[in-house]
Amino acid sequence: MTTRRVVGQALRGLNRNRLRTFFMMAGIAVGITVLTVVLSAGMGARERIMERVRVFGLENMMVWAGGPTDQTRMGGGGGEGSAVTATMKLEDAEAIRHEVRGVREVAPFSRAGSSEVRWRDRTFTAPVFGVTPEWADVWDWYVDRGSFITHEDNELMARSAAIGPTVVRELFGDEDPMGEVIQVGGVPFEVTGIMVEKGMSAGGGDMDNRVFVPLATYMRRVANVDYLSGIRVQVQAIRDMDPVATDIAALLRERHNLAPGVPDDFRINTPTEVTAMVEEMQGTFNLFLILVAGIALVVGGVVVANIMLLSVSERRGEIGLRKAVGGKARHIQGQFLAESVAVTFLGGVAGILLGLLGNLVMERFTGTPALLTWHILAAGILFSSVVGLLAGLHPARKAAAMAPVDALRS
Predict the structure, then answer these.
(1) Residue-wise pLDDT tens digits, 5-25
(2) Boundary residue ending a domain (186, 220, 236)
(3) Which of 239, 273, 290, 351 is deepest in the core (most CB within 10 A)?
(4) Are residues 97 and 232 in the same domain?
C-alpha cells in the first residue's frame, strides 16, 4: 500500500468521525495557541528592549558616580544617578578623554534630580541636566530649532537652556518658546533651543522631558555642586567597548585612590552588559513560557491518545476485516499513525491561526508588541506533529497487533 493511499484512508477515517476529530484538534490547538502567543510576545518584548538599547547607542557606555551599593540606576535620556558619592569630577572626564585609548569622545553631565520649571503661571517638573556641547554628538541628539549648549555658554556660565518637546507642550502649549525666560529651580534661563523628539529611553523614561543647561552654570547656580553625576563615553569601535571599560575602571580607581579590595565608587554600564542581561532574562522567560505551552501540548497529546485508543476499540470490525482480506500490520499501523499526525497537524495550523488572532487582540488592548517569525510557525507545526506521532504510537501498535479472528468476533 502506497503512502498516498495510507494518508487517504487516514483522512477518510477522520472525516467519518468529525466530532471526535474536532476534540482531538481542539486539545492540540490550545497548546499551539499558547505557544504562538507567548513566544511571539516574548520576541516582541525583546525587540522593543533592543530598540531602546540601540537608541542608547551601541558605541556608548555610561560611567556613573557611585558604586553598586549606592543604588545608582539608569534613567531616561542621559540617565540618572543618585550621586551619593562626590568623587567623580570634571577632571576625571578629561583624563578619560586623553589617557584611555579607543575613546572617541566624552560628555560629562551633572544632575541632582528633577526640578520645578516655571514659565509665567505654568509649572512643570522635569529632569534638569548640566551638560557640555559634546552631549549632542555623543547622544546623536541635536536641536530641532535654535542652538544647543556651546563652549562659550560654559565658559561664561551663561543662563541658556535647550528644552525637550514634552517640556514645550506642557509649559508653552501652542506658543513659541524661543527666547522666552523660564525659571529652573528658581534660576532664570533663556530658551535658546528646542530638542528633536527622541522618544523612550532604554529604561522606559520620556527622553523628551528634559531641560539642558550649561554644565558650569548648573553646578554653580542651580545645584551648587562640584562633582559629576556621570560621564557618557563614546568608543571608536564597538569591538573596543570591553577593553575601554576595563581601562576606564583602572584609571578611575587610580585617580580616586582606591586600594585593592575597596569597592568601586563608580559604575560602568555598557550595551554589551545590557544586551547580555536582556538575553538572559529573555531566555528564562521563554523557558518558563515554553514549559507552560509544553504542559498544554502534553494534555492535548493525552486527549489524542485516549481518543485514538477509543477509536481502535470501536473499529475492531474494520481492522479485522482488513486483516482477513490480506491487510498487513504495518499498513494498519501506518493508517492510525497518519490519522494521529494529521489531526494534530491540523490542530497545529488552527492553533497558529488562533495565536495570530490572540496577538492582534493583545496588541490592541494591552499595547504589548508581538513579533511572529517563521521560527515560531515552524515550531508550532513541528511540535504538533511530534505530539501526534507520540500520541498515536501506542494505539497504532495496538491496532496492528490485533488478531483478525478476535477482531471480527467482537
Answers:
(1) 555 655 665 666 677 778 777
(2) 236
(3) 351
(4) yes
